[in-house]
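Predict structure. Chain length: 848.
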Amino acid sequence: MAEDFGTLLSARIKSHDEFWAEFGSLQAAAVWSLSVGEPYSKVQAGVSQPTALSRLMYSASVFAQAADEDTRGLAQAIALCALITAPESNLIERSKSILATVGNYPAVGYLDEHFEQSPSTLLAELRVELLKALNSVDIGGKEIPLTEFQYDVWRMLPFAEAAAVSAPTSAGKSFLVIEYLCRRALSSDKFAAIFIAPTRALLSEVQHRIEKRLQGAEDIRVSTVPAPDAQARRRQIFVLTQERLHVLLSVMELPVDLVVVDEAQGLADGSRGMILQDCLERLRARNPNIQTLLLAPGAEGFAKVGEQLGIPNLLVKETDLSPVQQNRVQVKVKEGSPKEFHLSLLTSTGAAEIGTVATDRGVADRSTRLTAAALELGKTGASLVYATGPAEAEKIATQFVADRPLIESEPLLELSKFIKEHIHPEYGLAAMVRHGVTFHYGHMPSLLREALEAAFRSGDIQYLVCTTTLFQGVNLPARSVFINTPTRGKGTPLEAAHLWNFAGRAGRLGHELAGNVFLVDYEDWATKTMHEKTKFKIQPAFSETVSTQFDAVLNAIGGDMPSPNMRDPRPGQIRAAAGLLVAGASMNRSSGLLNRISGLTSSQRESLESEASKAVDALQLPSALIEANWTVDPYGLRRLANRMSEKIKKGEGDDLFPVHPSNPKAFERYPGIINRALRELWGTKSGPYGGLVATYALPWMQGVPYPVLLSKWVAYHRKKNPNAKINDLIRRGFEFFEQVLRFQMVQVGKAYLDVLHYVLDTENLKERRAEAFDFSLALELGVSSTTGRSFVELGLSRIAATALEALFPNSELTPQAAKQKLRDLDVSGVGLSRIMIDELQRLELIPA
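Prediction complete.
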């Protein structure tokens, strides 16, 4: 009854224009306080009057009791904005009560830690503390307060066979699920779990969070390496991308108890989404009782996703309420006012003027306006600035440096030194970080990227210019986010949900009460994507491709595979869908895949299933081989097998065997292997490409440091273009190492090795299997020794792993032996950089 009354009274309050005017003034004051940090006469006049603020706080206390989430969110917004604008003792107490009523207990805890408060009435204090205690969970010996939504999810987790959790970026989804996963591992005698992260950038972060929670339990393996455990431990947790999981499923028959998919909207992501779907279905086939948890930052369509994945009873928990206040602020420059930014608040009822920020700089130039806005409006805290691509990120970051002084800081000096010594001595980023500025993109080496993120979190770096890499998963909170376009690359429109996800980085649970999202020149955007909250619409890429590209997929299954095209994703999606259907037919599960696609007629299903069965009959390959390598052309597998058999019959079989990269015959052998694989698997004429790839693949696998690799890369390309800029060359080098060596060649290499093993078996040469070096895994990890791989398994970056590998004269250290060596190591005298020592300490491999 109380909720009904609260809802009714809330509706009456919200029907008054005066309420919205006063609330708009309060939000404007909060924006101003967060960005400028000074009182502003216009804003103050609107909210400093006791009666206006009192009315808003009363309204918030009513809204907090309403039944609908939007109204309760409004109560939270008033309380948080009041705290930011006028953190007086009386308001703190009233805000705390409101936040407790709406269930935002982390914010209540934040107030207790960061705000001075006068004693409240005993009854009020008891109420808040009781509510907070009821929503708290013991994590690692410390009581952690959860939001109402978090606690609801927490209670659901032990009983849900399959669940999807949809909530804003700042809602703490992965925090809960990691705690749940670790509790299951600690309480089980035998346990296996998979945590699927969408990017390599996330793997080490998640691995560290899990290991930290497990507090060094030696009998639980936590690994990012898709390989069996040498110790055969009974409890294992893998943190993998879907590509690495795809490899793991082909080399291990491990039945998995729990699988977590972070950023589950990735099911819609072309061929990568199809790999993810296939992995989930294969895990479920191995263990029908597996618990499946899908996490997404605001998504819809999970019920249909469950049906298409064969999980009809998928339980969905969702909220649109973020536990922090996020203000969307339009920034524009008016004609005739070249030194002023005009700010207005974007609300559900339109734009409300905030006021004008006068600057000492001219801001009329659109090419530098994003930077100028961030310098003026982001100076009170950490700021993330969106760039459409890596080159643009470097350009914008350079603009920041031109306007910021050199900072005398030991951490920044160490970071600069690390970049010069372990990336490249001429890399412009080394000088840039000394100004508290950096750029950030996905193809950077992991330790460099993590070091930049750590410097941003600590406050040593204030401005981080990033690409869409930060749209997914990486826990990088900021006070302000700056965006000036709804596009990526060369004008390609961004899905609105991606921008909303990035905007969710403004303010972060436990770090800030609120954050500002500055939309620069928003009135000129081609699409006004930030007007209304947009969710990800999850439609698995497999069903979408088969439904919309039916004829092309059918032809591809029959052998007419479209050629790969780096600029057009559709051929790759058609190839992947066709490959997955052929793999399904080889395992007698294509009918299950097709029956769950609602957009097909029965005739179309029959045609696809029939064509896939014919393909399997024509290929005459083991089903396990097709299932493990459907991401490449299945007909290419057959062509490659035929070619290998021919060479063996001619007495040229030795040429087929990949050798260890340190073998004297390695450079003689690998160009031919790479060209052969590309020609047969992809149907491409590779020419001298194999030699070019081998030139870098061999030292990469040997663990050769980045400065050596990049120096070779720069020298080669400067011969072709003496005027090429060093940052451009290094960026292209990173892209080559990540996209070609660690992605394309890993897939091709895995298929090549599997086909070679099959051919050796059919030619009665099974005993020679062991002669074939696993260059696919060596390319993925960037190391080729057991010791190097052990260091990577412990969570270390390639940079640190290869540096440490050089310290120990034993190439066969197991992970446990490598860990013990590190415990005994005196790092003060071995020449490791401060950044590497920080990584070792963060992973708790050496004492802090």
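Summary: The first strand starts at residue 136 and ends at 139.
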